[in-house]
Model the fold of this input.
Amino acid sequence: MERIIEANGVELCAETFGDAADAPVLLIGNTMLTWPDELCARLAALRRLVVRYDLRDMGRSATADPEAPGYTLRDLVADAAGVLDAHGLPSAHVAGFGVGGWIAQLLALDHPSRVRTLTLVGTRPTAPGPADADLPEHAPELMAHIMNPPEVDWDDRASVVAFMVESARHLAGPSFDEAEARKNIERVYDRTPVTGDPGKAHRANQMATAFAALDAGPRWRERLGEITAPTLVIHGEDDPFFPLGNGRALAAEIPGAELLTLPGTGNELPRRVWDEVVPALLRHTS
Done:
């Protein structure tokens, strides 16, 4: 059940699945729906206490101006530690997807006692902006779609959903499930509170636009060797947003990290990969 918690001095919307006596797993995405209900329930049924939450300016968490966030990436890392505090958890297994992977990496670096194991899904070792010279950049076709989008009425549900389905198609691997993507996009849209500027809110929830304007602070790639938590890197072989070289770099630079590649998969966690991802997560968090 969703509830509003106070973490690091802000109100965040969080939800748990499973028994409080089971091993805790903190899932970090942009909204809590980055990690689908059914995936969370499946982990909970296998004796994991799953905790997921909305970042600031996402979902039902505190919102100011997602296009001019008055907080930093390190504040979001402190928020994650605060989510653990609010649930009475000294530590947890931590998994971050996409931009949530940046928060997860920094949580493991700056609050190592809070992270039992680390799982990084579809992410990279550098913040928003140009990639390092040795890392692959976003695919040109994807960036052309993002930078030159068709006209979108961000106040209109049908317009937003149509645009985001096409964006999901560009982010996905060759086996794109349009119905599954549409359902997830509609759910994110319907959970977005219509307060302030609804267009800004929907852009932020659908595209994590706050990260484009966020102060990411000092680089951390050079510190990856300091991570002590056992680490699993999960990456789609056909990821056009953070191409596979990013996952390979994380696995190479974090001591002892394991790399699991998902064939035919983009920057996504579709249902068809859960039979591989869930057992891997269970092994890693045992």
Remarks:
- The mean pLDDT is 95.
